[in-house]
Structures are given as structure tokens and as C-alpha cells.
Amino acid sequence: MKKKWLMIVPAIALTAAPIHLQATEASAKEMVQMSEIPPELEPILAVAPEHQPTLKNGSVSVEVELVQVKLSHFGYETDRDGIFGNETEQQIRQFQQDYDLEVDGVVGVHTWTELIGEDRVSFTVEDAITFAEEELNNDDLIFSGDGILHEDSDGNTFYSLRASSQDLIDGGGSGTVGFYDVYSDGSVEESEPR
User: Fold this and answer.
1) Which tens digits make up the pLDDT trace of 30-48?
2) 50: closest CA among 155, 145, 194?
3) Which residues pair with 181 in a beta bridge?
4) Which residue, 32, 110, 135, 184, could crosslink 46 as a Cys pair with Cβ 3.0–4.6 Å?
5) Is the pLDDT confidence value at 102 over 70?
6) Which pLDDT tens digit goes with each residue over 116-141?
7) How far apart are alpha carbons 117 and 101 in whole angstroms?
């Protein structure tokens, strides 16, 4: 009987004791509010900060709109209109100051890195192969790539993949049946070898 009480008493004490939670304030480097990136802006996250356009007062683009969404996400309330005006510049300057960046009001590589670093989409060659397998839906095909991430004239990123037929390989051939450019948004386009 004593053994049962040794187990029951601590269990009752744990459930009856009040649990106190400590409240903390968010620091300047922590996100103040949660935000979701609108689907139409997500492809921009696939572009590395060093390949993003430099934005400044007067710029008008979807990239500016993403910057405005991210500023609001970090607690720097900004209208989302895609126009880099005085309000956006002021919030960028404050963001740069708070994140120990050069305070110039311009969104360059370092500011892009801080703004999108946590959301940056990593598009790997394995992702491209998965997209190609799903799109072409042919169990005989084997995809391979050199791992080089390419960028087209519109700034879209893609991997160039070789498609090989397992049946042709088993028959003693090279197996190569085609080449495909697979983009970070999942689109697959037939292409020439690179």
C-alpha cells in the first residue's frame, strides 16, 4: 500500500500546483507578428539576395511589394502598394538601423538578406528532379543534373536536367532521351543540352 501512495502523492501534487509562465517582450530582431507571403510573391523568394534588384525611392515593382510585406512582418508597418516612396524608405532606414546595416534607405544585398533570409526558398536539384518526375510521370525515366542553378533573362531560376530511359540503359545505350529546364515554380520545359 505504501508504494502506491509514493506514486499517487507526487502525481496529485504536480496536477494541483499552479504553473507560472514568464512573459517576455520581443526584441528588435525577433518577429513582432506572423505573416504569410502572398502566393503571387513567393517566386521572388527563390531568387538569391545577390540576384535581387536594388530598390530605392521611386522603384515600382512586385519586389517592392514583397519588401513592404516583409517590413510589416518585422513590425515596421508599411502600406503594400508596390511603390517605394518616402514611407517605405523611412521604414527601410529604421530596419537597417535596428539590424546594424548600413543606413542608406536602399534595399541592396545585405538588406535583402536580412529581410528574406528566414523565408528564402531553397530550390535544389533534388527538388527539380521531383518536379520533373511528377510532370512527366514516366517510371522508365531517370533524371540527372550538374547541380548548376541557372537564371533566365526574366530572373527565373532553373536546373537543366538530362532524362534517360532505364530500358535504353539496360539495353547498352546511353539512355539519353531529352533535356529539360525545371524551374523553381515547378514548371518543366523541354530544352537543349547545356
Assistant:
1) 333 334 788 888 888 878 7
2) 155
3) 160, 189
4) 184
5) yes
6) 876 655 677 888 999 999 999 999 99
7) 14
The rounded radius of gyration (Å) of the Cα atoms in the chain is: 26
Domain that holds residue 174: 125-191
pLDDT in tens, 56-66: 999 999 999 99
11 is a domain residue: no
Question: 22: which 3 cell numbers?
Answer: 514568464
Cα dihedral value 8, 11, 15, 21, nearest 10: 160
Mean pLDDT of the chain: 81
C-alpha cell at 14: 504536480
Share of the chain above pLDDT 90, in %: 51
Out of 53, 83, 116, a domain closes at 116
Q: Look at residues 83, 116, 149 and tell me which one is the last residue of a structural domain.
A: 116
Q: What's this model's pTM, rounded to 2 decimal places?
A: 0.49
C-alpha cell at 49: 539576395
Q: Quick one: cell of 100? A: 546594424
Gap between the Cα atoms of 181 and 128, Å rounded: 9
- CA 84, CA 97: separation in Å to the nearest integer? 18
The alpha helices in the chain, defined as continuous H runs, are: 2-16, 62-73, 86-98, 109-116, 125-136, 166-170
